[in-house]
Amino acid sequence: NAQFAVRRAKKSGRTEIYHTRALDLAREQFAIETELRRAIENGCMTLNFQPICDLASGRITSFEALARWTTEEGVAISPNAFIPVAEESGLIVPLGRWAIDEAARTLAEWDARAGGDCGVKIAVNLSAIQLQRDHIGTLVKAAIDRYGVAGSRFTLELTESAIVTDPDRIARTMTALKDLGTTLAMDDFGTGYSNLAYLQKLPIDVLKIDRSFVTGMLADRDKIAIIRAILSLASALGMQTTAEGIETVELAQTLAALGCTYGQGYYYARPLVGEDAFALIGTRNA
Ligand code: C2E
Ligand code: MG
Ligand code: MG
Ligand code: MG
């Protein structure tokens, strides 16, 4: 096992016990980490924005901010590759701070161009490690003050893993975020392995139904059954729902008929650069 070898080598301080694959892995990890640090410092990270739409009307209610890293060679690296590196190296703290600030800056810019509230919220992803290591409530408050955008214009997306790691700390953070007027969404709902009791204790507003249940649901009664159960759970608890991964009009219609509130996916739009996202508000919400 490559990772085990890395750890053993670090402890003993002896390089000779490095397995070749482990050494390659460690080198690669370090190279990515160094470049990622530089990218964050040099402003090479950007946010893309994917609309979240009201399923009934198709209107855009918010945009999810998705981090993008384009290297100096012009290669676009997926967050699925660099977020884990950022978490392991601690770079998730500066990266996460940047994402919150950049999301707020973007909202202020869109509002200025719209000559008032541009009518959408922005949703920012928070990783479990970031929630453990940083004071998210303080950061969001600072961004609100810095750009003069109301707290109600932000959604924060958390995952179940954040709740499992430190339930008391997460409860305090979520309360602080609610006090700022933000919306809290549980991302990738249904894929975590946590005890559902947290749903009645924490101030969650939205359940985001994971894409894995949506993809292929039209031909899979089990997936439909799970989605129905999540919708009924959300409704009983007074929460709203967003379905991820909507790629076709049939999925949008079926989820709307089942009573899901919002939808997100390639059918509506792929993640867009800020300029295109702003333009889309004008065309879709006219
Ligand atoms: P997520 O929060 O669940 O974001 C949704 C992901 O699904 C995005 O991938 C989006 O591009 C993709 N997606 C949206 N609609 C469709 C669709 O119809 N079909 C398919 N196949 N995919 C769709 P992306 O941008 O690669 O981001 C991956 C993950 O990286 C995100 O999953 C999120 O967990 C994480 N991430 C992205 N940006 C940030 C960030 O700024 N901070 C943190 N902590 N995590 C981030
Ligand atoms: Mg998300
Ligand atoms: Mg998600
Ligand atoms: Mg997902």
TrEMBL record:
It comes from the Bacteria. Residues 29-285 form the EAL domain. This is GGDEF-domain containing protein. It comes from Sphingomonas pokkalii.
